[in-house]
């Protein structure tokens, strides 16, 4: 019996930052049925991320992405097609409606999304503005601006 505690569930709902308080909050608020559809969160370099959602059976018009107040929401639902009459003898590919939410860190932006081979790839990039980047302050010369 292993007593090691896996931190993997803590990192599932966050992309681009490692703030433990926010991670614990999102785990506590996590809905129990949010494991469908399966997804991966990948890091490609220091400033690039990708969320890959298994969207087998869905088409582009069945999926919707929205970013609001730093939360990326991916939702999907099979829509009825005109003239489509299908009777399933066995339906093993789940096509039920879903909604996934990911809290994005500051300065993380969605670059684009593409549905390819049943996988929805959502590319994210960290774009830090100059005023938010750390600045090195030289030690030595001190200006006395307050002198009259």
Automatic annotation (TrEMBL):
User: Per the database record, which ranges form the SHSP domain?
Assistant: 30-142
Tell me the keywords, alphabetical order. Answer: Stress response
InterPro entries (alphabetical): A-crystallin/Hsp20_dom, ACD_IbpA/B, HSP20-like_chaperone
Looking at the record's lineage, which domain of life comes first? Bacteria
Q: Which residues cross the membrane?
A: none
Q: What Pfam families does the annotation carry?
A: HSP20
The family line of this record is: Belongs to the small heat shock protein (HSP20) family.
**What name does UniProt use for this protein?**
Hsp20 family protein
Organism from which the protein derives: Serpens gallinarum
